[in-house]
Amino acid sequence: MSVFRATQHPGWPAHLGPVRVAAGQVTLRPIRLRDASAWSRIRTRDREHLEKWEPTGRGSWEARNHAGNWPSLWSSLKAEARRGSMIPMVIEVNGAFSGQITIGNIVRGALRSAWIGYWVSKELTGQGVATAALALGLDHCFGVVGLHRVEATVRPENLASQAVLRNVGFREEGLLRRYLDVDGAWRDHLLVGMTVEEVSGTVVDKLIRSGRAARA
User: Does the global pTM surpass 0.90?
Assistant: First the structure.
């Protein structure tokens, strides 16, 4: 039974980190049902910061991000994680809920790939949190999860997120025209990717060598 579980649910649940950056100690942990209030509070407060980069949804921002919606979202994400197709995690800074990072569309076999995406509280932008969280997530992908390739997409206008992706080693692969319905319109996105062969040591090691992070 233990072999079956490891095969079906590689890398989840897991607790990753810590890594120290300017904002404090960054760790990743599985999503919890009791995250509802923190999730809703930050996303409602940071609407202007988040909405312009996220897929268009039904209803108002406030309604979609109400704490009452978290249990169903949590249940759906957890079910995907149990199937081994997704790893949904919370980004914590000094032990406080500060954002989310998700490894999704995990494919096995000859491809062994996934995408990775994240969001971070507005008050913590520019302090290394997203970079550290991505580094931890990528090392998890290329280590325990056993993936060969990880990709991400980002709008050409989102220069801050592009910088974060470059800092952890993603390289640009092309432009996806009218790729995703974001903030009410079909938007172009840059495709970036990374394979395990491009990582020397670990991604966290690279951040530490560059002076962007430190061991906690």
Answer: yes
